[in-house]
Design a protein that fits this description.
Length: 250
């Protein structure tokens, strides 16, 4: 699944306009009167813009990448793990292919959940996706061993639309974003245990993302202890406006 999702990257001119969830730059929750509650994060706390970053990078990443700390409680994390663990445990971590985008992982996809977990996932989906958006029915659960890494990649535009959300379980981690053309434009994002990240539009298409290995896990110079990490990832369907994956077009 993950390997299918990681291939391909569209040229800039084929990418659609920005259509993500907008934030107003303040901290806190925005209640717009609908069922959706938009969390506006304290960006400064989760983003480390490397000194070479241009103002454009700061604006672009700040407006298209959101971190919601403590999206779930410890009890909810336990509930989620209890539900996925038996399925993950049947699989072995894959370590052998060093050139693959991901090393030291096992993964499942699920669309059927207990009522309690469905309600947690529903909350996540309401936070991450606009009502109008067609979500992929399957939730992707990616279990990264303590020594596992996810190398820089852009998720395939063929299988996934403009929004990717990830709920982080069991361990803090550092996600690194790097502009696909301007390689010195690097932003580290602290994705803490039980937080939700939402990556959309510019962050999703114009930057590679990776999860740093345990030896490289530093945020603003401070070591971030990386253990086994499980992410629960939701995505939306590509639409007609989605960029075309020229690399996989026949
Ligand atoms: O584990 C994560 O949060 C990131 C997963 C990822 O990079 C992917 O599925 O493309």
């Amino acid at each position: 699944m993950v390997r299918r999702l990681l291939k391909g990257f569209p040229p800039a001119e084929t990418r659609g306009p920005y259509t993500g969830i907008h934030t107003n730059g303040d901290k806190g929750l925005i209640d717009d009167g609908s069922d959706r509650i938009t969390f506006v994060d304290e960006k400064i706390e989760f983003f480390h813009f490397h000194p070479t970053c241009q103002a454009e990078t700061i604006t672009s990443v700040s407006s298209s990448f959101t971190v919601v700390p403590n999206m779930i409680t410890e009890a909810e994390e336990e509930m989620l793990m209890k539900e996925v663990e038996p399925h993950l445990k049947r699989l072995k971590y894959e370590f052998d292919h060093w050139d693959d985008a991901i090393h030291g992982f096992r993964e499942i996809e699920r669309s059927r959940w207990s009522q309690q977990v469905s309600s947690i996932l529903g909350r996540i989906r309401t936070t991450a996706f606009p009502d109008s958006c067609q979500q992929l029915p399957q939730t992707h659960v990616l279990d990264l061993a303590k020594s596992g890494v996810i190398k820089p990649h852009v998720d395939s535009v063929r299988f996934c639309g403009n929004i990717i959300s990830g709920l982080c379980l069991l361990s803090d981690a550092v996600m690194r974003l790097r502009h696909v053309e301007l390689k010195d434009q690097v932003v580290d994002v602290l994705v803490k245990r039980r937080s939700l990240y939402i990556m959309r539009d510019e962050a999703r298409y114009n930057f590679t993302h990776e999860i740093l290995g345990e030896e490289e896990s530093f945020f603003c110079g401070e070591a971030v202890e990386r253990g086994r990490r499980v992410s629960v990832i939701s995505r939306n369907q590509p639409t007609e406006e989605s960029p075309v994956d020229s690399a996989t077009q026949s």
